[in-house]
Amino acid sequence: MSDANVLVVEDEENILEALRYSLEREGYAVHTAVDGEEGLNLARQHSPDLIILDVMLPKMDGFELCRILRSETEVPIIMLTARGEEIDRIVGLEMGADDYVTKPFSTREFMVRIRNMLRRSRHSANAQSTSASGDNIVAGDLEVNLASRVVRRAGAAVEMKPREFDLLALLVKNAGRAFSRDQILQQLWGHDYYGDSRTVDVHVRWLREKIELDPSKPRRLVTVRGVGYRFDG
Ligand code: CA
Questions:
Q1: CA torsion through residues 205, 209, 211, 212, sign
Q2: Please, which residues have CB less than 5 A from ligand 1, an ion?
Q3: How crowded is the C-beta side of 56, counted as CA atoms within 13 Å?
Q4: What span, in angstroms and rounded, lies between the C-alpha atoms of 195 and 44?
Q5: Ligand 1 center to residue 187 CA distance, Å?
Q6: Which residues of the chain does CATH 1.10.10.10 include?
Q7: 88-138: pLDDT as tens digits
Q8: What fold characterizes domain 136-231?
Q9: What are the phi and psi torsion angles at 70 (to 5°)?
Q10: Distance 76 CA to ligand 1 centre (A)
């Protein structure tokens, strides 16, 4: 069924075992670590297809581990945060996590999210390796290739995480149209996502760093007051 390999880093044994059980039942190969250092070693050793990372971990916390992993790999990372720790979600996303799940969580919903995330990251990997042509959208010195998922600015490739690219693609395909944060959340994260609209703001900020001349005075990806965001070209 699935040959994906998932690493879970979590020091709470009952959560760790519940995740291992559910993931194995879905057909994934599972590696587990109970502290940040072991997590980093296993991630380097096994090159997992997806990593689930608790925030509060012995030896090295989940944020630090996420930051290191992100500098080494594009692997999708889901962070686990305790209920109500809003700040954790934002910091986690800042450190490069792709998603977060609040404890306690529904295992079934979590498995759906994992499946979707793995599917998405495989799509982007395939697209990058096979397609050299396809829809190319050019806006000024910015070039967005929807098929190969390659973004160039003044001819130079711009590194994008899958979600950043999805957001950029949505906006450039619909240049001039304003999207609300909720519309963007639904398009990118799906209807079943219990998201926080600030997730969108964080991704917009990252994109601006990459495509704006002056990210503090955006001219391309502009804020539509009281609504959300719009791509102006
Ligand atoms: Ca913990």
A1: positive
A2: 11, 54, 56
A3: 7
A4: 30
A5: 31
A6: 136-231
A7: 667 777 777 888 888 888 898 899 889 888 887 765 655 444 333 447 888
A8: Arc Repressor Mutant, subunit A (1.10.10)
A9: -65, -30
A10: 20
- How do residues 167-217 score in pLDDT, each as one tens digit? 999 999 888 889 999 889 888 877 556 667 788 999 999 999 999 989 999
Tell me, in angstroms, the distance from the centre of ligand 1 to residue 45's CA: 22
Q: Which of 12, 173, 141, 1 is nearest to 80 (CA)?
A: 12
Residue with tokens 């044994």: 13
> Ligand 1 center to residue 14 CA distance, Å?
11
Cα–Cα distance for residue pair 20/26, rounded to 1 Å: 10
Task: State the span(s) of the chain assigned CATH 3.40.50.2300.
Answer: 5-129
The answer to whether the bond into 215 is cis (omega within 30° of 0) is no
Query: What are residue 145's DSSP bridge partners?
Result: 136, 150
- Residues 226 and 103: their CA atoms lie apart, in Å, by 31
Tell which CATH architecture fits domain 5-129: 3-Layer(aba) Sandwich (3.40)
Q: Which residues pair with 136 in a beta bridge?
A: 145
Distance from residue 10's CA to the centre of ligand 1 (Å): 6
